[in-house]
Write a structure and sequence with these properties.
two-stranded antiparallel ribbon; globular; 198 residues; eight-stranded antiparallel sheet; disordered N terminus; 2 helices; alpha+beta
């Protein structure tokens, strides 16, 4: 049943993408395990597609061992590549989508002293939100905690992410919309598609 639900979520995401400017230029292909190992080819720059989740989990990253209840997911994100003289779209054909992990919890949390405020704060973040950062994750990744009214979002960025604010602000703003209009506290999900400013 869970596999069917994930297939339906993928189908809805691809359907939505077919109307959005961030639609993959070629179809998604399935790798070794269904849905979980979706490989997107030619995802348009500036777009992110939810490829895993929204799944209930126990435990949040960046904190001492814990079993806090949360929802988790993963996005494939194709960053906007800087324009360079003499380069065209074909020159960036080998660019790969970044994998960005996300978590959501309503749990009240205390952060270790190693977490520091992100300064300056990202433009476009939902009102009354703040961002903390914890560097030094696996594979040079870094973790942000976006504290909002009544919940926290965690985002693990790969070390190669050059502009985390662009993803974080769009993700936090879209998620704020989703949580505001969820039918019930248990009906929260991550946005299937994120289109970042170009």
């Amino acid at each position: 049943m869970r596999w069917l639900k994930m297939c339906m979520m993928l189908a809805v995401a691809l359907y939505i993408c077919s109307f959005a400017s961030c639609a993959p230029k070629t179809a998604a292909t399935l790798a070794s395990s269904p849905v979980r190992e979706v490989v997107l080819t030619n995802l348009s720059p500036g777009c992110a597609l939810l490829i895993e989740g929204t799944s209930p989990v126990e435990g949040l990253p960046g904190l001492s061992p814990n079993a806090f209840p949360a929802l988790a997911g993963e996005y494939a994100y194709m960053p906007v590549l800087p324009a360079s003289p003499g380069k065209n779209e074909a020159d960036y054909a080998d660019a790969k989508a970044l994998r960005i992990r996300v978590w959501f919890t309503r749990q009240a949390l205390l952060y270790p002293e190693t977490w520091t405020p992100v300064s300056p704060s990202c433009l476009g973040m939902p009102a009354a939100s703040s961002i903390l950062s914890d560097a030094g994750g696996p594979d040079d990744s870094f973790l942000w905690a976006i504290k909002a009214s009544g919940y926290t979002l965690f985002i693990r960025f790969p070390g190669t992410m050059s502009d985390p604010c662009s993803f974080a602000s769009v993700f936090a703003e879209r998620f704020a919309f989703f949580i505001r209009y969820a039918e019930s506290p248990g009906g929260v999900s991550f946005p299937a598609v994120l289109e970042l400013s170009r």
